[in-house]
Structures are given as C-alpha cells and as structure tokens.
Design brief:
With about 140 residues, the chain is mainly α. It contains six helices and no strands. The chain has one domain: Membrane associated eicosanoid/glutathione metabolism-like domain (Four Helix Bundle (Hemerythrin (Met), subunit A)), CATH 1.20.120.
C-alpha cells in the first residue's frame, strides 16, 4: 500500500539523520579542540559545559527531533493505514515537517528562543489538528 503521507514521514526521518550528522560534525572537532576527556564518571552537565553553545545547539535539536515527532510518526502511520493519508492530511504532514526543519535551522544556527518557541507552537497545533483528524477517522 502506498500513501502520500509516507513521503513527509520519511522526509522527517531523513532530516533527523541530517541533524545527527551535523551534531557529530561539530561535536567531535570541539571535543578534540578543547581536549575534552570522555569520562563516564563525569556528569552530562559537566561535559556540556565544556562544549561551545553553538555545538550544543545541534545536539539539543537532535534530541528534540526524538521527542514530539514520535507522535507525528504514530499519527502519520495511523492515517496511512486507514487510507486517509492523502489530501489535507498529507498537506498538514508536509507543513509539520517544514516547520520542524525551520525549527531545527533556527535552533542550530542562531537559537533565538522566542522564534524557536513560536515555530514549535505552530508545529504543535498542526500536529494536534492531524491527531484530531486521525481520531475522527478512526472513531
């Protein structure tokens, strides 16, 4: 079964890998440059304190992509499975993915918290609408 809504789902999965690569492309050189010893006895906070903020931002965003988007994946798969993955639902899915990519870029490059928060809130509303549409279709 092919559903148009699976394309934005895969786009967000692939974007998560872009952020994963960006995270390590900046973190590893920072670890080397700052002579950071990877010590399992040291707290995460102590490790992060030694990294420049611009490096931490990428890791923070990668972690964010492992949080709320899990709901997106569940809703998207539900819509695909019940045959409701086209039309407005696909448009909403692409809108959510676009907003999450913009959120990632804002956080990873400039990290203006209020801009990032506004994008997150709009994306959350889009996801809520998708979830409500899925719930109505299932029930």
């Amino acid at each position: 079964m092919h559903s148009p809504i699976l394309a934005p789902l895969m786009a967000l999965v692939l974007w998560s890998f872009v952020m994963w690569a960006w995270l390590y492309a900046t973190r590893i050189p920072a670890i080397v440059k700052n002579n950071i010893v990877l010590d399992p006895q040291r707290s995460k906070e102590e490790f992060n304190a030694r990294l420049p903020a611009r490096v931490r931002w990428k890791a923070d965003n990668y972690n964010h992509l492992m949080e709320q988007p899990t709901l997106f994946y569940a809703v998207t798969l539900t819509l695909a499975l019940i045959g409701e993955g086209a039309g407005m639902n696909a448009v909403l899915a692409w809108l959510y993915v676009g907003l999450r990519i913009v959120h990632s870029l804002v956080q990873a490059i400039v990290n203006i918290v209020m801009v990032r928060f506004a994008i997150f809130m709009v994306a959350s509303v889009v996801l809520l609408v998708m979830a409500l549409r899925a719930a109505l279709a299932v029930l």
